[in-house]
Amino acid sequence: MDFSLSPEDIAFRDELRAFLDANLPDFLEAGEIGESSDSNERTMARRQAWQRRLNEGRWAAINWPRSWGGRDATVSQNVIYAEEMARARSPGIYNANGIWQIGPMILRYGTSEQQQRWLPGILDASEHWCQGFTEPEAGSDLANLRTLAISEGSDYVLSGTKIWISTAHLARWGLFLVRTDPTSLERGAKHEGITALIVDVTAPGITITPIRDLTGNALFSEVTFAGARVSQEYRLGEEGAGWKVAMGTLGHERVGTAGLSMAMRIELERIVTTASTAVSGALEDPAIRERIADVWTQLELTRLLNARALTKIQRGLPNWPEVPLAKLQWSYLSQTIAELALDVLGPTSLLAKGSPDALDKGHWAENYAWQRFTSIGAGTTEVQKNIIADRAIKLGR
Ligand SMILES: Cc1cc2nc3c(=O)[nH]c(=O)nc-3n(C[C@H](O)[C@H](O)[C@H](O)COP(=O)(O)OP(=O)(O)OC[C@H]3O[C@@H](n4cnc5c(N)ncnc54)[C@H](O)[C@@H]3O)c2cc1C
Q: Where are the domains of the chain?
């Protein structure tokens, strides 16, 4: 395994670092953006402005082709990008779903009219996108989805419910999976008869109801369709080929693990710095010191796991079983770090946002609640373990 970067990758990294050095400090200094009383809306306004700044330097969608404003980034450049953005503590981007998952699918399956219509708005952050896959009876078992799209004239007419759809209430567009052939379920062929549709989520017949999560924020929603009409021109790919499109988007979801492990390392450093400056004696307890050392070691193992996955991809091999292992490692470690923070930093770290005595404006308490999602989103822990048991260890059923 050779972990050294090629000259092209070093040049890529240095150009990105120079861009961040020139743009990030004054952006961060400018602080909050927008007048909204809702802090989530202010966060999204800030992300929108940051994505626009990134786009001006051609750094918003590095995974897209140059002809569409990207950089045709290689796998190792995607990893470098994720690590550098996490290291610099860059704000998140506004259209993460659009840039990493939906845009690449529009590039792959969309007609040139569809590409012209939708890609510029994803890239310049003028239109927000969501991804509508999960349903009350179709989460881990996504192919069980039942939202109906019946062909009528030049439209589809939609009925059904999607749930846990992130930022749907802020979106103009979404990539939705719907069932265009209801007989496929009766025939026991649930992966067939699914179609990918681009939906204007502000259209009549669509209701978006935000759902409050454990942190008190309402960042995801239930989306119900009651006779909403969607033009057949908004279909992405062939009718009945939606499963293939969905698998493409979920594959892109896995690109970011390297950045996540860098973000976790920075969070651990932040715990240690905060403890040494704000909580007297916090780092003297031998049990706490051992837990910090253990997390540090696990982070190093995660880095090596990511490097092994990357090496396999570069050699044209499937990065198996590193993908489910990295997902498990990420959810386990991010929850462990969030819990460690509360134990190290003490009672004021448990105070919620808005409390005058809350350490770091309530960041630690909020993060503890928020990290619970990591064992559900992007594939639940139990399902990842099943995959490893079945396909890697071959334990049998
Ligand atoms: C923060 C967050 C954001 C999300 N954003 C989106 C989004 O933007 N768009 C979208 O489409 N979806 C989104 N989701 C939904 C997410 O994809 C689903 O929650 C996930 O796929 C799990 O599905 P489920 O919630 O229906 O749980 P279920 O699949 O019903 O699982 C319930 C429990 O049963 C276990 N289980 C299920 N099957 C098995 C099995 N075969 N063996 C053993 N145990 C099993 C699971 O591990 C889990 O513990 C989001 C979820 C979260 C938490």
A: 7-123, 129-240, 251-392
- Does the bond joining 25 to the residue before it have cis omega, within 30 degrees of 0? no
The separation between CA 253 and the C-alpha centre of its own chain, rounded to angstroms, equals: 6
Distance CA 97, CA 249 (A): 9
Look-up: residue for tokens 């699914």?
Answer: 194
Q: Which of 380, 388, 395 has most ligand 1 atoms within 8 Å of CB, for mutation? A: 380
257-278 helix and 75-87 helix, angle to the nearest 10 degrees: 20
205 ligand 1 Cβ < 6 A: no
Q: Which fold has domain 129-240?
A: Butyryl-CoA Dehydrogenase, subunit A; domain 2 (2.40.110)
Distance CA(171)–CA(44), nearest Å, equals 11
Q: Look up residue 357 and give its two tokens.
A: 């005595």
**pLDDT score at 3:** 73
Q: Is the separation of the CB atoms in 235 and 242 below 8 Å?
A: no
- The domains spanning 7-123 and 251-392 adopt the same CATH topology: no
DSSP secondary structure string for all residues of 127-186:
S-EEEE--BTTBSTTGGG---EEEEETTEEEEEEEEEEEETGGG-SEEEEEEES-THHHH
Q: How many angstroms separate the Cα of 361 from the Cα of each of 26, 202, 268, 354?
A: 22, 35, 18, 7
Q: Which residue type does 243 have? A: W
Q: Would you state the pLDDT for residue 251?
A: 59
Q: Domain 251-392 adopts which CATH fold?
A: Butyryl-CoA Dehydrogenase, subunit A; domain 3 (1.20.140)
Does 382 participate in catalysis according to the annotation?
no
Catalytic residue among 152, 192, 253, 267: 253
The first and second tokens of residue 115, run together, are: 């590409």
* pLDDT tens-place string over residues 205-251: 999 999 999 999 999 999 999 999 999 999 999 999 999 999 876 65
- At the fourth CATH level, the homologous superfamily of domain 7-123 is Acyl-CoA dehydrogenase/oxidase, N-terminal domain (1.10.540.10)
- The low-confidence residues of the chain, meaning pLDDT below 50, are none
Nearest Cα to 346, choosing from 361, 334, 364, 332? 364
Ligand 1 pocket member 390 (CB < 6 A): no
CA 381 to ligand 1: nearest atom: 47
3 state DSSP class of 199:
strand
